């Protein structure tokens, strides 16, 4: 598996056009601190996941995370087949939101690890009305319960909204010093800020997942370079971690 810096950014390619993705990667792939890309379901639905991955592999050797918007919320018996298809496509990691319950956490995380892929596990989105206490349908304890169970199964990578500093600090208290890493969406249009999120995440490796703020800008390389520099300013010294 790849070694990556302890802090950086992931570019979310939430696009439905491979030519647009190619142009984006031509501009940003060489940027220091940009450690990988998130493929979304739009590319997979239009081209097939394997074809989308092949096209991106022609452009980059960096991490490829697949986000099925959001996989893991399914019956446990689907886990093995879903993970096999993703593994055969050539991605490195799967973003999982196993909100269907403990058996879904067990199945999707375990099958992902068994296949040699990295589970990046979450349970919350950076939306104002996502949680029940803010008008949504998901209990506030879901993220913590999912993360703790996934960690016990061997997961070390977690999705947590960049907009929720309290939840980030809770993850730090639970997982700092235990080899865990945080991946944080919500930077830019959804209100998140790298400096605030990474400050809350001090003590853990941290990566900002950023989509529209980069790919929708007329100068994506300039934006990505600035954001990557901001993220890497939290590295006390040149640190690298094994992404496995």
Highest CATH level, the class: Alpha Beta
Instruction: Determine the strand fraction and express it as a percent band.
Output: 15-25%
How many structural domains in the coordinates?
Answer: 1
Protein structure class: alpha/beta
Helix content: 40-55%
- Gyration radius, in Å: 17 Å
Elements, N to C (H/E) = EEHEHHEHEHEHEHEHEHHE
Low-confidence stretches: none
- The side-by-side strand order for the widest beta sheet comes to 2-3-4-5-6-7-8-9
Number of helices: 10
How would you describe what is shown here?
The protein has 244 residues and is an alpha/beta fold. The protein has a single domain, classed as TIM Barrel, CATH 3.20.20.70. Helices cover 40% and strands 20% of the residues. It is built from ten helices and ten strands. Strands 2-3-4-5-6-7-8-9 form an eight-stranded parallel β-barrel, surrounded by six helices. Helix 2 packs across helix 3 and helix 4 runs parallel beside helix 5. The chain is globular. It starts with a strand and ends with a strand. The mean pLDDT is 94.
């Amino acid at each position: 598996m790849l070694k990556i810096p302890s802090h950086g950014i992931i570019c979310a390619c939430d696009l439905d056009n491979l030519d647009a993705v190619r142009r984006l990667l031509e501009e940003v792939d060489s940027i220091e601190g940009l450690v990988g890309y998130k493929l979304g379901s739009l590319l997979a639905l239009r081209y097939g996941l394997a074809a989308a991955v092949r096209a991106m592999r022609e452009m980059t050797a960096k991490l490829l995370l697949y986000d099925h918007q959001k996989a893991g919320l399914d019956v446990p018996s689907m886990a093995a087949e879903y993970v096999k298809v993703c593994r055969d496509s050539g991605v490195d990691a799967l973003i999982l939101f196993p909100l269907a319950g403990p058996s879904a956490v067990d199945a999707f995380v375990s099958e992902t690890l068994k296949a040699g892929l990295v589970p990046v596990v979450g349970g919350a989105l950076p939306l104002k009305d996502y949680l029940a206490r803010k008008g949504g349908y998901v209990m506030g304890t879901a993220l913590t319960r999912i993360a703790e169970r996934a960690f016990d199964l061997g997961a070390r990578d977690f999705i947590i909204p960049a907009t929720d500093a309290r939840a980030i600090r809770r993850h730090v208290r639970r997982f700092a010093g235990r080899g865990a890493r945080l991946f944080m969406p919500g930077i830019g249009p959804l209100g998140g800020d790298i400096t605030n999120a990474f400050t809350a995440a001090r003590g853990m490796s941290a990566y900002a997942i950023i989509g529209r703020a980069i790919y929708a800008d007329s100068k994506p390389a300039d934006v990505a370079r600035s954001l990557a520099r901001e993220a890497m300013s939290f590295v006390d010294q040149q640190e690298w971690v094994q992404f496995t």
